[in-house]
Design goal:
With 281 residues, the chain is α+β, with helices and mostly antiparallel strands. It has six helices and 15 strands. The strands form four sheets. The chain has a four-stranded antiparallel beta sheet, with no helix packed on it. Strands 5-6-7-8 form a four-stranded antiparallel beta sheet, with no helix packed on it. Strand 5 and strand 6 form a beta hairpin.
Length: 281
């Protein structure tokens, strides 16, 4: 029998009560700091192999190399991790993190599925009320976005200023998720308020059909490629910043034409795009 070394551990931020969560092979191992040493406190068999890990307070979001992702919570009375919900698709998770927006917790997952699918950035939600969630046991896909190259890192960051369309109240600091891909590209996932989302969504629709694109490629078809999205709404819930950002590069006449088509002005659209990027590193 050939020796089979365990994959390197994947550390994460501490849980409450100075607990450290680490992914080692198929296990999530919880350590506690006691008498100047880290002592194994609990463990959870997560699946085939833990490939990504993120924590927020007592919640743990774990990505698997073959079995998608799981949302768990630390139960202090039981002193153990308990499964809350999971992503049913058989995918390979590269990275994961949490994203808070206006009191709603979103789960960001970078993954690649079976043969034929492409590297995808996916937004998941937990809900006990939605019928399709089966009383909260299934994480609901809310948005899917083809990124072109495997994402190797997700990092939640705080960004300054109020967001476009009221994504922050009273100048409160927003959250965004920074991603880095294997081809060297970087980007952000930034939450939008409803007003800004509708305005920029309409703008993106007009820009898809009203502008020339490299190689005559369809921007939305490219972002939908290989994502295995279950609905058209899932593909529309994440806007392509690279596409709508081209608005600022257009001439005045072209900007005026596009803005009129969505019932706005070039100044209002430019302001929304500027506010969206404000505070990003």
């Amino acid at each position: 029998m050939l020796p089979c070394p365990l994959p390197p551990p994947i550390p994460s931020r501490p849980l409450p009560r100075l607990l450290l969560q680490v992914g080692v092979g198929a296990k999530l191992v919880t350590f506690i700091y006691r008498e100047d040493a880290l002592v194994t406190f609990a463990f959870y068999i997560a699946g085939f192999g833990v490939s990504a890990l993120a924590t927020l307070r007592n919640y743990v979001f774990a990505g698997d190399v073959h079995q998608g992702a799981q949302l768990l919570t630390w139960k202090e009375d039981k002193q153990s991790l308990v499964l809350v919900s999971r992503h049913l698709r058989t995918t390979s998770a590269f990275a994961c993190d949490f994203l808070l927006h206006e009191g709603t917790l979103h789960l960001v997952l970078a993954e690649a599925g079976p043969a034929g699918s492409r590297p995808t950035l996916r937004l998941l939600n937990y809900s006990r009320q939605a019928e399709e969630s089966r009383r909260g046991t299934i994480l609901l896909p809310r948005a899917s976005f083809h990124v072109g190259a495997p994402i190797t890192r997700l990092q939640r960051v705080a960004v300054g200023g109020a967001g476009a369309g009221g994504t922050g109240a009273g100048g409160a600091r927003r959250q965004a998720v920074l991603w880095a891909a294997a081809d060297g590209s970087i980007g952000f996932v930034v939450p939008l308020g409803e007003t800004a989302f509708r305005r920029l969504g309409f703008l993106a629709t007009k820009m898809v059909g009203g502008l020339r694109h490299d190689g005559a490629l369809h921007p939305r078809a490219w972002r939908a490629l290989g994502t295995s999205a279950t609905s058209a709404r899932e593909l529309k819930n994440m806007l392509d910043g690279g596409l709508i950002g081209r608005f600022l590069e257009l001439g005045a006449d072209e900007q005026r034409r596009l803005a009129m088509q969505i019932g706005s002005t070039p100044a209002k659209v430019a302001e929304a795009l500027t506010e969206l990027a404000r505070g990003l590193p």
